[in-house]
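Appendix B, example 12.
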Amino acid sequence: MRHFGHIAPEVRKRLFFREPCAFTPDSPGRLLSVALGATLYSPATRPRLADDVLKQAARGVVSMVLCLEDSIDDADVGPGEENLVRQITALDALPDADPPLLFIRVRVPEQIPDLVRRLGPAVRLLSGFVLPKFTEERGIPFLEALATTEAESGRRLFAMPVLESPELLYRESRVETLEGISRAIDKYRDRVLALRLGVTDFCSSYGLRRGPDMTAYDVQIVASVIADVVNMLGRADGTGFTVTGPVWEYFRVQERMFKPLLRQSPFLEVQAAELREKLIEHAMDGLLREISLDHANGLLGKTCIHPSHVLPVHALSVVSHEEFTDAQDILRPERGGGGVLRSAYTNKMNEVKPHRAWAERTLLRAEVFGVANQDIGFVELLAAGLPA
């Protein structure tokens, strides 16, 4: 699989200076953590789940979570497990099936070995588990169950803890909770693929819900948690983990209070005014702004609950030709001693030592999402990836 692999090769050639690399569920964890992109959630109870998975893969989705937790009723957990096992087994029986990276969101640790046992050979399609409401106390049993199940099944399985507990939100317990989470995930570092933020749960603790005109960063109590999570768990010194962006809840807006957030000029330049109107109609202008703020705050990838959110996440994850050029210049071997240089685009200063970590992260993102041609922006990437 590869990002933008669903569009025609000749279109990719026009869009990309360097095309996204191919990867598989067996690729190194460091690469996969960046490659997750827009992770699409789906209730495990969907009767045509296997068909849904393949349909979304054909539209560019590369990671999915099949959910047995908050997205389904408590009474549906048993039927949901049965349906999930049946559907993944059906996928495994298809000779030409090429599903995305698949993860199961469980409720309790005991579900991990039980589901792997019930899947049998079809476990080869599973990349891991999403662990809800993760703290040190609640998370260790999940990680222990994962490690034991992995050893018994012979299948590499990753964990994606969800940081969403009230203890993490409350000021008086936040640092202690983050320190505990850090201890837990560091012990199982090789198995923790990424950390996911449960912003909806954060908001619920205070009876809040952000509107389509607001990003997560406009809700100050949520923004403060994101900052502290990145501060303690997302460092670029080798101790950090990939932290993914929060879910965007909206996919159509009936009425808006504020002006749209998308400027007209990038769309007019490529005769895509109709695309701009469509994005605004479906609340994508707010989503695009939040994705940009995710990147600015050290997050990569995003939890998605609607297929229309996937392409914006991927389009804005593509590395621009300017970013790529700057990163390459900063990391040239002859720059090992540091110093300052003018960018090749002659519009900024590149300071080698302070910008090195950014450059390394940028080149890894470039490998996974590709590098856009010099004259290609996010509008062209969005337009090219839309269904015909």
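The mean pLDDT is 91. Residues 97 and 106 are 24 Å apart (CA to CA).
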